[in-house]
Fold this protein.
Amino acid sequence: TVVCAQHVLKGFVAGGGDSGLLGVPMEFLFKEYQIHGGRMQVYMAVAVSPWALKPVIGLLSDSCPIFGYQKTPYIMASLVGGLMAVLALGLYGTSLTLAELVSCLFVAFFAVSSVDLLVKATVSAQVKKVATHGPDFFLFQWGGIVVGMIASALLVGPLLHYWSPRHCYLVALPFMALSLWPALANHLGEQPLPPEDRTGRMAANWRKHPEMFMLAVFMGLVLIGIVIATLTLSEEK
């Protein structure tokens, strides 16, 4: 699970967050739309903004279990959406409208940030049970991410030079799909909640942590508003 979700997906595919096979080609794609300077930075910021949605993702997964599972369904849903977005970027590239391009990038990074958060939360809880393994585990986790980032940096340059930005997404697609396997096989070891604990969790979280609840909702609404406004303006232009 850690190898697929952290080393491969976050390290290799996303270059540690906003780079790699997903992030580096963005600048070249936007240049083909004759977008430069500050306007390009706005679109790139919107594309990687799902990393700021982690509080909302965590709140949603904790408050609204699906069939009793708090993490696996959200991992699966975000990955399927991300794979479809990356496939569209790889097949169509700049044939997409600007709004469609930014939307696909947003969904792709949303998949990476969601999987990163939910897998980390599950694995960290398991590591806490055996505290002596903590340092070794985090060394393994971040060491693999760094190796993935280096491999991605070595690969993305030749892909851009000899092929095109959209080919980076086609190469990323099978590596991204690897994260589906541990989710489907439930290698996270997630157990369904008892039926009596599946309802009323949103209200319970509000009562226990009202400030954090409101802050997460506020951040989510503001960010979604910015994304919608940016996409709307891009269509007008």
User: Anything to note?
Assistant: The chain has a mean pLDDT of 88. The first helix runs from residue 2 to 13. DSSP finds eleven helices and no strands in the chain. Residues 54 and 117 are 7 Å apart (CA to CA).
